[in-house]
Amino acid sequence: MFSPRPVNVFSYPLPVNNQGFSSGFCMISDQLYQALQDLVGKKNVSLERTDRITHSYDATQHEHLPEAVVYAATALEVQEVVRLANRHRVPIIPRGAGSGFTGGTLPVQGGIVLVLTRMNRILEIDQENLTATVEPGVITAELQRQVEQLDLFYPPDPASREFCTLGGNVAECAGGPRCVKYGVTKDYVLGLEVVTPTGDLIHTGGVTMKNVVGYDLTRLFIGSEGTLGIVTRITLRLLPKPAAKKTMLIQFGSIEGAARAVSAIIAGRIIPTTLEFLDANTLACIRDNPELPIVEACQALLIVEVDGDEDMLERQAETVLKLVAELDVVHTETARSEAESEAIWQVRRSVSPAVRRINPNKFNEDIVVPRSRVPDMIRALDRLSERYQVPIVNFGHAGDGNIHVNVMVDLSQPGMQETVDQVLEQIFQTTVDLGGSISGEHGIGTAKAPYLHLELDQATRAYMLTIKRALDPDNILNPGKIFLADDQATEQLR
Predict the structure, then answer these.
(1) DSSP-derived secondary structure letter, 298
(2) From start to end of 72-154, where are the E strands?
(3) pLDDT of 255 strictly over 80
(4) Cα→Cα distances 83→86, 131, 143, Å
């Protein structure tokens, strides 16, 4: 089940030096085990190997066993567990569904995995002020279903929404296909309740749309991957639910045509709900499915969806088709019913299982480039694929330039891991050279920590490390994430 490759992160804290964290993480003692049971109840603490294995990996499929698993049910329990971990110098790793792609919940230093899925209550849906207050263990799709029953709308829609948690969404600043129009998680978080690395309970933001009192700590915690605090309550902004939607499948004879179409649609003052793209390599994986309507000449496609008032949708759809008509379009389809819309989205959903037929091991990266540079990035990826003789399959959110790059290999082949490492570094360097970012919605975690220096300069990385060390001087909270080990980080900052 697990990859034989160790996670690409360096172990620390190391002995005390003038740059870094102090040393000395401890094992789980009988005394600490009893104290944890006293805090959260005997059935909510486990040292069993089966439970430890269950919480030892995420979507990276790298495995790091924790020493204990604790299931907290309240903010007070989280506080007390964190305080106890600090006293005993034991790492604590907050965890929701464990669906991340960059190792953000891997217990790379052992310690305690603090599972927050018991904190799964929707505390309030305020229809008058358009807000929802939730605990971190609430499943994203469940909140969406609950608010939509009230004709309200929570837009962020990561692909894992049926099982990922809102606490994890905040930790990684999750996005999804709808972000081209509606934005990502940080655009909907009004306030947070957070347990700090020393066990204090603080509140950031509030329930109002405007709030400029003091530093914007809410934004500091969003996307911090559980390294600065543990979120125990979230206040979210809601929108009125769109009355209707219309879905289009537009097929192109070239990736250039598809990229120019994206720019044309945005320039035409149409902001679609979603603008998803599949490149030629992706299409090659799904062409043999007779139920998917892809013509032979198609080398790239866009799934375009617009939403809003029903009387506007037909005009918007017609405008979209007119804007792209001369851009190497080879076929178009417009859904006339919910069933037809689902059939179009099935094209996109069929990709992930289909690419596994190429090779058994997938390295999924979520780079972002400016929309206009998508063709340049795709061409660069094709060159890397040819140079290193590894399949690279690309799809994603064309509206914001977020490309999901999938390097498909068989790690049982000699030297393949070294080849993958070279390909990934080339992918990230090219991304930065094109004015992009090495991560759009998956975070840094352990997987991308060695590449942080490609995007962030020395002064910026040093400033981030200063914040981490100030808030968590003993590096108790989710150690080994985002930054390399202290000696490695020091070397990078020279």
Answers:
(1) -
(2) 92-95, 112-115, 122-126, 131-134, 152-153
(3) yes
(4) 5, 31, 31
